[in-house]
Amino acid sequence: MAGLRAVSSEDGWPDVPGDTALTIRIPEADAFVRAPFPAHITVLYPFLPAARITPEVHAELSALFADRDPFDLTFAEFRRYPGVLYLPPAPEDPVHALTKSLRERWPEAVPYRGVFGPEGLDPHLTLANDEGPGTYEAAYDALERELRPMLPVTARVGSVHLIVTDGRVWEDTAVYKLGRSPAQPAPLIPPARPVRPASPAQLLRAESTALSRRS
Predict the structure, then answer these.
(1) Burial class (CB in 10 A: 0-12, 13-18, 19+), 26
(2) Angle of CA points 158, 191, 186, to nearest 5°
(3) Spatial CB neighbours of 148, under 8 Å, sequence gap ≥ 6
(4) Which CA distances in Å does 127 have to 77, 79, 164?
(5) Per-residue confidence (pLDDT) for residue 187, from 0 to 100
């Protein structure tokens, strides 16, 4: 893997230029997020390299998601990994079902490159992940007190976004509607406003570091 720097347990792993991911946006929770990215749940990261996202793959993704009905998610409690504060969605099954369908069709797309085992992590919406081991408990206690009056949050999920990175920023590439006729192509999103320079790798940096220390 020429050109990739060595990665230690202390700094997670890098996003490779051309990495893609499938995510669910939760704009109703944007006001909760203190990390430098919009509120979202990862369905599958990484997905196929961007070079493999052909019109045929878009058509397959359109059909796969069209076969799933829209659903509601509720976020009503806080949970933590060491160094990370997040909201678990309820129910989790619809998100797991999307991931399972993608994995069955593209088994080479292993969640989080296998860092957290073959099944990856449970669905979660990260709120904050920038505190160190000596400060995160007190900081997240305070953040929970601030945000708790705003819970619960309910969101209607009707689409899944395909995003791609150049190794530095992530951009929307396409959006696939749930329950939509597969005869209708998923609209492609031209490169425009980049997502803020954070990544799924940064999102889970603290989890990876903490788990490696405990192993």
Answers:
(1) buried
(2) 35
(3) 78
(4) 12, 10, 22
(5) 60
At 52 the pLDDT is 96
User: The pTM is what?
Assistant: 0.80
The Cα 9–Cα 40 span in angstroms is 25
**Look-up of token digits 């052909």:** 54
Q: What are the residue ranges in the chain where pLDDT is below 50?
A: 1-12, 191-203, 205-215
pLDDT in tens, 164-202: 999 889 999 999 999 976 555 556 655 444 444 444 444
Q: Give Cβ neighbours of residue 192 (< 8 Å, ≥ 6 apart).
A: 171, 172
Residues 6+ apart with CB under 8 A from 134: none
Q: At residue 123, what is the residue type?
A: P
